[in-house]
Backbone:
């Protein structure tokens, strides 16, 4: 089954400069919780307890976040504020966190390949923490929905959503045969196409379940669009030789890698989760 989740978090987060000069974008808080913690919680809900992070220079705050802070715990002991650490303490106590570094930013595909030693030889999940995915109230999270599908189909699965035509250039875009409502077998994939070159308006978002043969494919994948090793190129090879599914998930996604999406997520979480608590 899917027991491990990889977080590629080596990117520079240039859209958030100067905020991300000394702080990883994955640590930016949506209300009172860092983006990356939402991702880890989503994976835990999907039954995953082993986490691997592909980090880079300037990302140590992520390691610190998933480690005990004795001094802080000591300071707030008996002050009534202990519950503010409860969610992160719970994650630290019940999961394992491993880290490796991507020392050159050669793209998402290269970052995933860098995580190979953390993942081993089984199917695994990938979360891009800057896509914040929230389920409909009372419904399972996106990764849990995908894990349920994996149990049935046993092949790589990417999460997709419909995007406006003028936004296809920001995503990998798929073409596929409909298997059932919201589920496609991928036949083609184009990385960041102009609207006229896009094979559909179905864009890949930051949730993947990958079978481990992806690593050998990535190892021989040449740099593609923007000179980066693209996960979409490797997935297309997998799709042509076997099967890759695209799943139109249920829930909401916020592009927290962009300022607009981040503000939208903050307002949504404040109104619907934080105040409702
Ligand atoms: P992005 O291109 O959206 O992230 O990469 P970025 O580079 O951090 O942000 P901007 O565009 O400069 O603002 C998508 C995801 O892939 C990871 C990033 O950390 C992000 O989660 N990534 C990308 C890597 O880990 N390594 C890479 O070489 C490239």
Residues:
């Amino acid at each position: 089954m899917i027991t491990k989740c990889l977080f590629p978090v080596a990117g520079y987060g240039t859209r958030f400069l100067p905020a991300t000069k000394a702080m990883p974008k994955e640590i930016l808080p949506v209300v009172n919780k860092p983006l990356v913690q939402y991702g880890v919680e989503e994976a835990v809900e999907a039954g995953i307890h082993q986490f691997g992070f592909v980090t880079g220079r300037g990302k140590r705050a992520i390691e610190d976040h998933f480690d005990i802070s004795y001094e802080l715990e000591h300071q707030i002991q008996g002050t009534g504020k202990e519950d503010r650490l409860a969610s992160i303490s719970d994650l630290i106590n019940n999961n394992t966190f491993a880290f490796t570094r991507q020392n050159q930013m050669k793209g998402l595909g290269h970052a995933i390949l860098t995580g190979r030693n953390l993942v081993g030889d089984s199917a695994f999940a990938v979360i891009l923490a800057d896509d914040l995915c929230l389920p409909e109230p009372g419904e399972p999270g996106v990764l849990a929905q995908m894990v349920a599908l994996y149990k049935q189909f046993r092949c790589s699965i990417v999460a997709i959503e419909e995007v406006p035509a003028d936004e296809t250039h920001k995503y990998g875009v798929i073409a596929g045969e409909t298997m059932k409502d919201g589920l496609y077998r991928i036949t083609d994939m184009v990385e960041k196409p102009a609207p006229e070159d896009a094979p559909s308006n179905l864009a890949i978002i930051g949730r993947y379940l990958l079978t481990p043969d992806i690593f050998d494919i990535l190892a021989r994948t040449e740099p593609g669009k923007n000179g980066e090793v693209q996960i979409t190129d490797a997935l297309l090879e997998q799709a042509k030789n076997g099967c890759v599914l695209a799943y139109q998930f249920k829930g909401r996604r916020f592009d927290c890698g962009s300022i607009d999406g981040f503000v939208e997520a903050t307002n949504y979480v404040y109104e619907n989760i934080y105040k409702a608590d």
In short: The longest strand covers residues 172-180. The pocket of uridine 5'-triphosphate is lined by residues 8-15, 25, 54, 102, 105-108, 110-111, 128, 130, 257 (CB under 6 Å). DSSP finds ten helices and 13 strands in the chain.
